[in-house]
Amino acid sequence: MRNTADTARVLDSAQIEQFVEDGFVKIEEAFPRGVADEGRAILWRDTGCDPDDPTTWTQPVIRLGLYGQEPFAEAANTPILHNAFDQLVGRGRWLRRMNLGTFPVRFPSPDDPGDAGWHIDVSFGTEATDPNDFLAWRANVTSKGRALLMLFLFSDVGQDDAPTRIRAGSHVDVARMLAPTGENGLSLRELAANDFAETARRREVLATGEGGTVYLCHPFLVHAAQPHRGTRPRFMGQPPLLPAEPFVVKRENGDYSPVEQAIRNALRDVL
């Protein structure tokens, strides 16, 4: 791969087109497997569970807090990912991350994890928003506060290992839902009032892959957790990539990022 910032391209034209059309792209070996192993060891310690004793895995999901130790900061800042951010969001339009936020660690369990509903990740509140009420947080058509949804796999994730479910192309439907609602957009409670029935026809894709894989997703992509039916816990970080400047769906110079172009494509009848 070429190393200069001006010429390095992680994603080819077909992958960019897939991102615009389906709302996500999968990057294998986005960060080293050894880094995934180091990070997973830290996460295992903080679960309070024994990796070698499944009798200690008593909950279907354990949510761990903010993680910015060296393996996580390294995973978030590989040249591969920085170049992909430039390609999808635009050079100079995103903010460097030094942590990977929270990790919902999912364990094999017959129990309902209680968080497997379809949703998008919302990003901002108003003065009236209760910061403790997640369903009251909001999204708008220019995706205020979020440039990408990212899924960082810190363990191998197969079809039975609670991979995130993705509705390919659902970002188009969400853009159309948000378009008439202005700067304040809609809360997650409003968006999910009918369980995102507008997206139910969309093809379902599972976010599987080896440790070190990253899925870069459009911020409007509808996705969901699911129960873990495998044998080894799943470790995945799901931080946002934050924008350095707001997205714009009407640029005088026409220099649209793929994130913006996907929104424009969804709204072509009204722009």
Topology readout:
Layout: H1 13-22, E1 24-27, H2 33-47, E2 61-64, H3 70-76, H4 79-89, E3 103-106, E4 138-139, E5 148-153, E6 165-167, H5 170-178, E7 186-187, H6 188-191, E8 204-206, E9 214-217, E10 223-224, E11 236-237, E12 240-241, H7 258-266
Antiparallel strand pairs: 1-9, 2-3, 4-7, 5-9, 5-11, 5-12, 6-8, 6-10
Explain how this protein is built:
This protein is an alpha+beta fold and 271 residues long. The protein has one domain (13-266): q2cbj1_9rhob like domain (Jelly Rolls, Sandwich). 24% of the residues lie in helices and 14% in strands. It has helices at 13-22, 33-47, 70-76, 79-89, 170-178, 188-191, 258-266; strands spanning 24-27, 61-64, 103-106, 138-139, 148-153, 165-167, 186-187, 204-206, 214-217, 223-224, 236-237, 240-241. The strands form four sheets. Strands 1, 5, 9, 11 and 12 form a five-stranded antiparallel beta sheet that branches. It has a three-stranded antiparallel beta sheet with strand order 8-6-10, with no helix packed on it. A two-stranded antiparallel sheet has the order 2-3. It is globular and about 60 Å long.
